[in-house]
Amino acid sequence: MIYLLWIAGVLALDQATKLLALAQLEPYKKVEVIDHLLYLTLTRNPGGAFGILRDHGLLVMVITAAISLGLLGALLFTRLRDGRFKLGLAIIAGGALGNLLDRARLGYVVDFIDLRFWTVFNLADVAIVAGTVLIFWHLLRRARPC
């Protein structure tokens, strides 16, 4: 199934970039990539998105695992027909699994992309947002005015 390849691809790219960040960056030391716009800053997030539930890592891990299983179940065991919708689910699942793997392996999520006006994030977070945007775009295109 092509969507499983998307999940694996997102997961692999996410984990590869996090391994590079861990190997090449010093924690909390900013490295400017694009003048005043893009920095690389290695951080550790033991909580959920935006650091919420920072003292409840196990709860965040259980919630993430449940969401990931739900997404996989929707892709594998339902009769979703629209490819864009399924692709969005697959991209979200790949990102969720990437962050879940960090939590299970390290006890925190590795973040390193720093735009200075937003919280530091990673490619798994980008995938989750991109997949969500793709699903909303699909739903908006299907919506018909009354």
What does this structure look like?
With 146 residues, the protein is α+β, with helices and mostly antiparallel strands. It has one domain. It has four helices and three strands, in the order H-E-E-H-H-E-H. A three-stranded antiparallel beta sheet has the order 1-2-3. Strand 1 and strand 2 (38-45) form a beta hairpin. Helix 1 runs parallel beside helix 3 (83-106), helix 2 (57-77) runs antiparallel to helix 3 and helix 3 (83-106) packs antiparallel against helix 4. The chain is globular, with a radius of gyration of 16 Å.
Defining key terms:
146 residues; alpha+beta; three-stranded antiparallel sheet; 60% helix; globular
Instruction: Tell me, rounded to a whole number, the average pLDDT.
Output: 87
* Strand content bin: 5-15%
What is the straight-line distance between the termini? 37 Å
Helix-strand sequence:
HEEHHEH
The total of helices stands at: 4
Structural class: alpha+beta
When the domains are counted, the total is 1
In short:
Helices cover 60% and strands 12% of the residues. With 146 residues, the chain is of the alpha+beta class.
Write the layout of secondary structure elements.
Layout: H1 2-24, E1 31-34, E2 38-45, H2 57-77, H3 83-106, E3 109-114, H4 123-142
